[in-house]
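Before the break, one more example. Copy the sequence into your notebook; we will annotate it together after we see the structure.
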Amino acid sequence: MKHAVVLLSGGLDSTTTLAIAIAQGFEVHALSFDYGQRHALELEAAQRVANSLRAKEHRVVKIDHGIFAGSALTGDGDIPKNRSEKQIGAGIPITYVPARNTIFLSYALAWAEVLRAMDIFIGVNALDYSGYPDCRPEFIATFEKMANLATKTGVEGSRFKIHTPLIELSKAEIIRRAIELDVDLSLTHSCYDPTPDGRACGLCDSCQLRRKGFREARVKDPIAYAA
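Here is what the structure looks like once it is written out:
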């Protein structure tokens, strides 16, 4: 059995990525992070997803939230709402978390080396990398090169592979792929600013991209929205 580490936030993209890794024959080890995110409900979603898809194991790493200060996702600032698609795709948004994917992938790499797993999966996609620098294909390619230079395993001749199966897909295509793999999308959580009772706000960038994806896929979104 091939082993893989899969970064799992509990959102639509990472959940689909986990299902793809399993469909490709990997025994998956899911890795999530508690980094002081205001949408920490995603960790509950990640646990539900890991259980539903029968991950081999699921770990949550706690990181001092002060490391990620300066993002709207980790501070008290307002989460952008009601932005147009053009606004969402323009520049780096204030929801960018400093070096987050670099740090998350580094943890995944360390765990993969311990597990003797040569494969790491991350659910970055085309809609994200327009705004977030650590979701771009060139970042992933450079990190993979670094992984094989900076580890005992890589230096001794084995090669780590960073898989990005969603990177060229739209949200609608991701949703269709999840449905093909019989993923229960009602278990996922995408919202940056959920209500106290756990409903998605419906207005943040993440909610808007998710809703647009379901509309274009012509599939009913199974989660509840506040607006």
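The beta strands are 2-7, 26-34, 57-62, 119-121, 161-163. The chain has one domain: 2-190. Try to locate both features in your own notes.
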